[in-house]
Automatic annotation (TrEMBL):
PANTHER family: SYNEMBRYN
Protein name as annotated: Synembryn-like protein
Domain of life: Eukaryota
Keywords: Chaperone, Guanine-nucleotide releasing factor
Region (Disordered): 409-428
Organism: Thyridium curvatum
Length: 474
């Protein structure tokens, strides 16, 4: 190859000329093998550097340029050449979306999937990245790709390798940058495949046990608990069929049935504390959904542990529920987070599930103030006896009644230091309540006896003069 002085800082026409020359030589080499292995790898390395900025690097992103790179990346016998070309190709597909479509149109998708059979972390990372980017093509046929390339098996086998290293507590493997990168990328690929092609999610069920091992063995990142690889683990589980038969031993292992659930709860606790409100929607919502699905099939001993960890505790009930920094308080606070509507729905579903999908139990667990919004969204009636002091599952044995509206222990409530109402004020308040109850009944949401109407019938209130009558509230 004619040796040109390589300069990474070339711009404008000089850079365009250099890129054109390199691609011409590489394309020629595909037919004549006119480059030595060192020259070929040097040319690809230089092209990779030029391709990091798409300006004045147009030949890389053309159909001919993508084909040249794909042939070196997926057909060469040299590991170094393949990896150098894969890096160029991955950068091109990342920076210029049209390159993804070109790659798929050229028919190289199945060959990229085959690369996942290689027992090499860097090959795994690069093949996962290229395949992941190709899933954004408008014409890719994912069901065919999954069925005809053994992609699901390839991913399961690679995750099994990672899980094996994690189970051995191989710190070197767990912290090796390339292994962590490859693990992160292949779990992202798994999520994209099951998200974009949900009808094929069952093909990836074999990955679930490996993901659960990885979830339990990897350290939780700080200060952002759902950074890679933890976040991608949870996202990958989101679309998989956790309800499939035979997964009980993975979700609830005999030696520690609650270990996986406890790790998820720990992740939730740290995430609710660690992320600001505007980041919760995208980061924490999948975790809440996976916890809910795990709880739905948990044995009673694990269900009990999860309820104790996620529902208000005795300490929470010393004050009004939803205050403080406990996990349950943070969950209740996010029921009114305007920046996270999907998270709000996920938390509502989880709390309802933790309450046995029973409205009365939900009110007892989190108080009418929070439960009413959940029940309204689910179009469920409010329990008729919600006005009576109650005890929750966690506190029934202690016999401490709590305010059904606020969830606070009655004996912890501070007396309100206000003067006694006059008889006239009581009558005015009674009429206001009468109007409000009548309007509430008309909505059809509740069907309860208006206590003011009952009191009037019983003769406990006297009529007041028209001039003193309270007008209806707007």
């Amino acid at each position: 190859m004619d040796r040109l002085a390589f300069r990474a800082d070339l711009q404008g026409q000089a850079k365009l000329d250099a890129v054109t020359t390199l691609l011409d030589k590489l394309t020629e080499d595909l037919g004549k093998q006119c480059l030595t292995p060192d020259e070929r790898d040097t040319a690809l390395d230089q092209l990779k550097i030029y391709g990091r900025d798409p300006r004045n690097a147009d030949p890389i992103f053309t159909r001919d340029g993508i084909e040249t790179l794909a042939r070196f990346a997926l057909e060469s016998d040299s590991r170094t050449t393949c990896q150098n070309a894969l890096k160029c190709l991955a950068n091109a597909m990342l920076l210029v979306p049209s390159a993804r479509q070109t790659f798929v149109d050229l028919g190289y998708g199945p060959k990229a999937c085959d690369k996942l059979k290689n027992d090499d972390w860097e090959d795994e990372f690069l093949a996962s990245r290229v395949t992941l980017l190709s899933t954004y093509s408008k014409t890719i046929k994912l069901p065919t790709l999954i069925d005809e390339t053994g992609l699901a098996d390839n991913i399961a086998q690679r995750l099994a390798k990672h899980a094996e290293a994690a189970s051995k507590q191989d710190k070197e493997a767990l912290t090796d940058p390339m292994q962590v990168l490859s693990l992160t990328e292949i779990t992202r690929l798994l999520f994209n495949l099951t998200h974009l092609c949900h009808e094929k999610a069952s093909a990836f069920t074999a990955t679930i046990p490996h993901l659960l091992v990885l979830l339990s063995k990897h350290d939780i990142p700080t200060p952002s608990p759902l950074e890679a690889p933890m976040g991608p683990f949870i996202n990958a589980l989101l679309n998989l069929e956790l309800e499939s038969p035979g997964l009980e031993s993975s979700l609830f292992p005999d030696e520690a049935p609650g270990a996986i659930a406890a790790r998820m709860v720990e992740l939730l606790e740290q995430s609710l504390q660690g992320y600001p409100d505007h980041e919760l929607e995208a980061t924490v919502t999948p975790l809440v959904s996976v916890i809910h699905r795990t709880y739905a099939r948990a044995p009673e001993e694990v269900s009990r542990i999860m309820r104790r960890a996620l529902l208000p505790s005795e300490k929470d009930r010393e004050g009004v529920l939803g205050q403080g920094d406990s996990t349950s308080a943070k969950m209740l606070q996010n029921l009114s987070n305007p920046l996270a509507p999907t998270l709000r729905k996920a938390i509502s579903d989880l709390l309802f599930g933790l309450s046995g999908n029973d409205p009365a139990t939900l009110v007892k667990n989190i108080g009418y103030g929070f439960a009413s919004g959940i029940l309204f969204e689910k179009k469920l009636p409010i329990p008729e006896d919600m006005g009576n002091p109650s005890t929750s599952e966690a506190d029934a044995s202690r016999g401490r009644a709590f305010n059904p509206v606020t969830g606070q222990f009655v004996d912890s409530e501070k007396p309100v230091d206000e003067p006694e109402m006059t008889e006239e004020e009581k009558e005015r308040e009674a009429e206001r309540l009468f109007v409000l109850f009548e309007r509430l009944k008309k909505t059809g949401i509740v069907d309860v006896q208006n206590p003011v109407e009952q009191a009037l019938r019983d003769g406990r209130f006297a009529e007041i003069d028209d001039k003193d009558r309270v007008e209806e509230l707007d």
